[in-house]
Design brief:
The protein is an alpha/beta fold and 105 residues long. Helices cover 16% and strands 41% of the residues. It has a single domain (3-102), classed as HesB-like domain (Hypothetical Protein Aq_1857, Chain: A). It has helices spanning 6-18, 69-72, and strands at 3-4, 25-32, 38-45, 53-57, 60-64, 76-81, 86-91, 100-102. It has a 4-stranded mixed sheet.
């Protein structure tokens, strides 16, 4: 299962409202990289595909495709709000390198 921090839930709800996408889900795509690392792509989608894993937390939905799902087991989606960088951060125990700051301002 995937954990989503309360701050990430709050920020996702804010983004959905700002974009006029209430009811949309956040799709997380994991793309394995060189040397055991990974890149993550995040996108908003209105509908889940039939084979997606859907994680519901506090009124938001996270969609994960069947190829990414096993690699996302135990991962946490958080939000980092700093001076130099802000965005969603994925901490994944299945990937050797550290988290990934995805999105941002």
């Amino acid at each position: 299962m995937i954990n989503i921090s309360p701050l990430a839930v709050e920020k996702l709800k804010d983004i959905l409202e700002e974009q006029g996408e209430q009811g949309a889900s956040l799709r997380v795509i994991l793309m394995p990289g060189a040397n055991g690392g990974a890149q993550y792509m995040l996108a908003l989608e209105q509908e889940a595909k039939a084979d997606d894993m859907v994680v519901q937390t506090d009124g938001v939905s996270i969609l994960i495709d069947p190829d990414s799902a096993p690699l996302m087991e135990g991962a946490e989606i958080d939000y980092m709000d700093g001076l130099m960088r802000s965005g969603f951060v994925i901490n994944n125990p299945n990937i050797q390198s550290g988290g990934c700051a995805c999105g941002g301002h």
